[in-house]
């Protein structure tokens, strides 16, 4: 098989969203996104906080490129691991 064109790695992504509380229109960048486990039934969610009212804005991953989601998962798991206190295992 011959590769005709190498895939372009997409690591940056943004979307426009409106805050459900204060109605500010925001452009959310991939660096603004955090992760929360909501429930076993609902699954995991990605969110960004509104800079005006600090409401958590849940983001749909359906429009998010797979490469960006993988990069987010990796960044967020590294942040979680770095935030743990390694001196206290319990």
Characterise the protein shown here.
There is one protein chain. The protein has 90 residues and is of the alpha+beta class. It has one domain (14-80). The protein has one helix and five strands, in the order βββββα. The strands form two sheets. Strands 3-4-5 form a three-stranded antiparallel sheet, covered by helices on one side. The chain has a two-stranded antiparallel sheet with strand order 1-2. Strand 4 (43-49) and strand 5 (56-59) form a beta hairpin. The protein starts with 13 loop residues before the first strand and ends in a 7-residue tail after the last helix. The relative contact order is 0.18.
Overall form: globular
Instruction: Return the domain count.
Output: 1
Strand order of the largest sheet: 3-4-5
Tell me how many strands there are. Answer: 5
Terminal CA distance:
52 Å
Tally of individual helices:
1
Average pLDDT across residues?
A: 81
Radius of gyration: 16 Å
Give a short synopsis of this structure:
This protein is an alpha+beta fold.
Please tag this protein with its features.
single chain; about 90 residues; alpha+beta; 3-stranded antiparallel sheet; two-stranded antiparallel ribbon; globular
């Amino acid at each position: 098989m011959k590769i005709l064109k190498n895939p372009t790695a997409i690591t940056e992504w943004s979307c426009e969203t409106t805050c459900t509380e204060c109605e500010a229109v925001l452009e959310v960048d991939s660096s603004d996104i955090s992760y929360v486990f909501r429930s076993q039934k609902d699954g995991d969610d990605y969110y960004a906080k509104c800079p005006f009212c600090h409401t958590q804005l849940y983001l749909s991953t359906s429009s998010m490129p797979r490469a960006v989601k993988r990069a987010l998962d990796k960044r967020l798991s590294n942040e979680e691991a770095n935030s743990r206190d390694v001196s206290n295992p319990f």
